[in-house]
Each structure stands twice: as structure tokens, then as C-alpha cells.
Design a protein that fits this description.
single chain, mainly alpha, 7 helices, 0% strand
Length: 219
């Protein structure tokens, strides 16, 4: 057990060193963190195109490529904030921009899956992919709206990193039909997360007094 733990610790340290080396290299270029965020969206768009291009003859290969591309996009997701901090480019707008682009990255991946199932005349999974697309947005939206009212709402399990990991697993192992159960898991757990956040916000706000309509943000 100790040897396994030391091996995983060593692997984690090695990954951390590699990631920091990437951050250091990008910091030297003085590239804007917002540009890195946008590049991540472009890479995810390539993955979505691979999903949409897949058919019954090439889907194993296309999904594998898409999974690898999403991993590449994930690197940009991990380094943009670190580069911002290391180069002292942390801004309120940067946090807003990162959040907006992350939502687009989520949508574009599910849209690619939706196109794949539509081209294969699999109506049920078209609906399921669309449902997961909506619930993924609602997970983020409920947190944003709740935090505008109560300050913090991090309850629930199905955050964006978990969604991305599941999509990657579904893409890499779709030779065995893994993507279909992944969509089911995403649909169920994302819905539970939304309900949890609604309930949590209700519990946190029910003791508050009435507020004027102008005090509640509409967008």
C-alpha cells in the first residue's frame, strides 16, 4: 500500500512540475490569459467537429481523436488562471470571460454529440444529448444566480471538471459503447446537482426578509 501511495505521489508531483513548466513558458511570452481561454474553446470546437463527423464506420477512431483533443483543451483550462496569477494579469473581467467561454466549451461538445446521434438516426440519444446540454448549463446557472443572492453555493457533485472527465472517458472508450452510459450519468447527476442547489438556496434565503424587485439581478 505504501509503495502504491508513493508512486501516485511521485506521479502527481511530476504532473505538477510539467504543468508549472508550461505555465512558466507561457508566462515568458506575456500572452493574455484570455487568449489562452479562447484557444481552449477553439480546441474543444475541433473535438466537437470530430464527434459530429463520426459515423457507424469510423466512430471509434473519431471519438478517440476527440477524447485526446479534449485532453489538450483541458491543459489550457488548467493554465490560464495560473498564467494570470503568475503574470499579475488577474482581473474581474478575466474571471467573467473564463466562465462564459467555459459554458460555450460545454455546449459545443454536447452539440457535436447531438450531431453524431442525429446523423445516425438515433432520436432518443439526440434528445438525451440535448437534455444533458441544458442540465450542464443549469448546473452553472443555478450556482451563479444563487451566489448573486447568498454569496456562495458550491453544493452538488457534477461540476465542470467532473463533466469533462466523464466525456473524455466516454470518448476514449466508446469502442465498448461507453459514451451512452456516460450521457445517462451526466443527465442524472447534473439534474440532482441542480435540485440540490435550488434546495440549498431555498434553505439559505427563506429566513431573509422581502427584497425590492430592483435589488434582484435579472441577467
Amino acid at each position: 500500500m505504501a509503495s502504491n501511495k508513493s508512486w501516485t505521489n511521485a506521479f502527481g508531483r511530476a504532473c505538477g512540475v510539467l504543468l508549472q513548466a508550461i505555465v512558466n513558458g507561457l508566462a515568458l511570452t506575456r500572452i493574455s490569459p484570455n487568449v489562452l481561454t479562447f484557444i481552449g474553446l477553439l480546441i474543444n470546437t475541433i473535438a466537437a467537429i470530430l464527434f459530429g463527423y463520426a459515423n457507424e464506420h469510423n466512430y471509434v477512431r473519431m471519438f478517440l481523436y476527440a477524447g485526446l483533443v479534449i485532453i489538450g483543451a483541458g491543459i489550457f483550462d488548467m493554465v490560464d488562471g495560473r498564467v494570470a496569477r503568475q503574470t499579475d494579469q488577474v482581473t474581474v473581467f478575466g474571471a467573467f470571460f473564463d466562465s462564459v467561454i467555459d459554458r460555450y466549451s460545454d455546449v459545443v461538445l454536447f452539440f457535436g454529440l447531438l450531431v453524431f446521434y442525429a446523423r445516425g438516426n438515433r432520436f432518443f440519444y439526440v434528445v438525451l444529448a440535448a437534455f444533458v446540454m441544458v442540465t450542464s448549463l443549469m448546473v452553472s446557472y443555478t450556482r451563479a444566480r444563487a451566489e448573486a443572492l447568498i454569496g456562495q453555493c458550491k453544493v452538488g457533485f457534477m461540476e465542470r471538471p467532473e463533466r469533462i472527465v466523464l466525456i473524455i472517458l466516454g470518448a476514449l472508450f466508446n469502442r465498448w459503447g461507453v459514451m451512452a452510459p456516460v450521457l445517462w450519468v451526466l443527465a442524472v447527476l447534473s439534474t440532482i446537482t441542480v435540485i440540490h442547489r435550488i434546495r440549498y438556496t431555498y434553505q439559505m434565503t427563506k429566513e431573509m426578509g422581502p427584497v425590492r424587485p430592483t435589488a434582484i439581478p435579472t441577467r
